[in-house]
Amino acid sequence: MVNRLSPEQLDCLQAAADANDPALYYQLLTEYGFGYGQVAREVVTDTGIYGRTANNFLREKLLERRIPLTKELRAQIMKELMDADLSYRKRGVLVTVDKIAEYHRNVFERLGIPQEAWTGAFLEGRGGLAAFCPTCTEDELAGRSRWSAPREVWGDVIDDLTERSAEHRQWAF
Questions:
Q1: pLDDT value for 103
Q2: Largest CA distance in the chain
């Protein structure tokens, strides 16, 4: 895996960002060998299981706070996340799941969006950061195991169900 982008690749990413075309930006990232690009592209195009899940999750979390997810707000989120990603890449930083989480938190905070509205934050607490990016490369995962994430998520789900079941049993008699 090549961690650094060539000047030509950075120029193409910059052109996509300048055109405010996150779908193209993340498609290019995918073509350049960065697995995060695939997940992010699904989110910006609202396609695939990852994209639809993330967008529905965001919409529901915002509705809980009585914040409408307008077309303008969604576009602003996508633009700022793309710009933050590009900022790291222009500095030659390997953009790991830690960096992705960091810039999501920063962008959400800047836009007044609750941190828990990012699907990655939900999954981070239930399987680690590797859970939100199943297509990330080993380098992007920064030593995390993609195989431990599903096991941790399902373990948490089973623990939650078992706990709830025990709570309900006490009231059954």
A1: 93
A2: 70
